Amino acid sequence: MDRRNFLKNGLKVGLGVAVGVAAGGGIALASRGENTNLPYPYVKLDPERVAQRAYNYYRKGHCAYAVFAAILDELKEKVGEPYTYIPSELYVYGKGGIVGWGTVCGTLNGACGIITLTCKDYGKLIDTLFSWYEKTELPTFVPKGKVAYPKSVSNSPLCHVSVMKWCKAATNHFGRHIAYNSKERSERCARLSASVARKTVELLNDYHEGRLVPVKIKGFQKTKMDCMECHSKTR
Amino acid sequence: MDRRNFLKNGLKVGLGVAVGVAAGGGIALASRGENTNLPYPYVKLDPERVAQRAYNYYRKGHCAYAVFAAILDELKEKVGEPYTYIPSELYVYGKGGIVGWGTVCGTLNGACGIITLTCKDYGKLIDTLFSWYEKTELPTFVPKGKVAYPKSVSNSPLCHVSVMKWCKAATNHFGRHIAYNSKERSERCARLSASVARKTVELLNDYHEGRLVPVKIKGFQKTKMDCMECHSKTR
After folding, report:
1. Closest CA to A108 of A175, A44, A63, A43
2. Does this complex have an ipTM over 0.90?
């Protein structure tokens, strides 16, 4: 459904139910925005444009907000309702693996929110995104006029593991200690937000055009983290 | 703002902007639902009622959905807009630490969504909830007419760690192997969803009544997971 039809259909419904008198004599408002059945209609987005937006948004609300809001705000502008009813700030809590607890990387949590809003087969897209995330040298995004940053492979979807592996790679690269609370790590996470937002939009576009080849994860353990990292025999 | 005032104010705004003619000659719909500034208005909820609802919802959409939707649907019924515009299914992806990846416990991810929707100081509530989660013998919820389940202390906000520690405790308790994919583990996660939903509502009620004493986390590492679980000297 394109935006014109969307508005036309919205109008029909809207005129019908926008203001109604409830049974009890009170007045209730309703609109088609209250139909919250997922998935919501998706339109093709520009991955590069969204990546730049996510990079900019990182300074406003960190990683999870950057990915979720960058994609959501594009959909608010291109589709309108029902996306306009979703608060763009919902995922601000995802920063630092959820307010600094180091659990799931916030870029992934924000991406999951958007994927679930827009895809019936959200699980397939999330598996594909997570698998890409833990195997890929990141960040891939380079802001205009800046030089590329050192990259690392996280081998895990966890913030703490991903951040610390990058800090190690960056320490080697820059020849001085790069700590978790350095401005370089912050810039890395801004570029990571852009990288994950771009990849998410590529996956969404492919899925909605019937071109997605989802990654199939074999076995019980989806992450390919080495079990012995936590289950060494000395414990 | 109670529901009556909320509707009255909504009506004023609604009549003003519900149907407007856009500059380009097209017709655009808008309503007060499009004001998505957080936090949204909260009303006191019944923790026991929400716990039972989360327990029931687990069968529909697993852990993260159970906590998020149980609280959201109560707010939809008691407050109405703007909660009615949020899809209750948004957090279905959170199950098994995000579609089985074993990262953050889904009950916590769902709770974070609701906390961020309703609280300016979402970080303080999340710290308090996570700290309680990793130190408390869980699950605490017992369905009516059923016996209590074995409990375990996760010492971590991660799904994989929390589940496997419980499986070990349950294996000792029942005197037979309780696996991660057993019906007992599933029942434990349903009761865990109810336990976390109840605690979240207690925290929300306390916060909005000015009675919350938030937990302050000292040091860089918020989780009290033993570093050497992943960083043993043999690696």
Report:
1. A63
2. no
